Amino acid sequence: MAEKFDSLEEHLEKFVENIRQLGIIVSDFQPSSQTGLNQKLNFMVTGLQDIDKCRQQLHDISVPLEVFEYIDQGRNPQLYTKECLERALAKNEQVKGKIDTMKKFKSLLIQELAKVFPEDMAKYKAIRGEDPPP
Q1: Could you tell me if 69 and 127 lie in one domain?
Q2: pLDDT tens track, the chain, 134 positions
Q3: Distance CA 133, CA 124 (A)
Q4: What is the radius of gyration, based on Cα positions, of the chain?
Q5: CA–CA gap between residue 18 and residue 50 (Å, rounded)
Q6: Record's superkingdom (predicted)?
Q7: How many domains does the chain have?
Q8: Residue 130 DSSP one-character state
Q9: Do 104 and 116 fall within a single domain?
Q10: How does DSSP assign 70-126, residue by residue?
């Protein structure tokens, strides 16, 4: 799988370099540089075809739209993964806290109900298999 990404990365780097060179040719355009310009344009077309071939190899890869938003904002897309993990850990801690609170509440509720309704709670505990009935 990594070689597919390596191939795409290589083609993208070549394409970007070709565009950079094309920009230099266009900014200092002279009629004598028409041949070089045509050659660079042909390289661009070939580069786009190479990138399209890589796309076909990676058709099953999906990238969350938020990653592209990070890139558009000039942020490192690897930060997206880091921030997702941090949000997941925070949510995990929050849910764990709720579970612990509910367990404490259940325990206290059972204790208080046992004081008020001892017979009913003994039956409840017997049904649940917690304590045998007295």
Answers
A1: yes
A2: 677 788 888 999 999 999 999 998 888 888 888 888 899 999 999 999 988 888 878 878 888 898 999 899 999 988 898 999 999 999 999 999 999 999 999 999 999 999 999 999 989 988 988 765 55
A3: 9
A4: 32
A5: 13
A6: Eukaryota
A7: 2
A8: S
A9: yes
A10: HHHTT--THHHHHHHHHHHHHHHHHHHHHHHHHHHHHHHHHHHHHHH-HHHHHHHHH
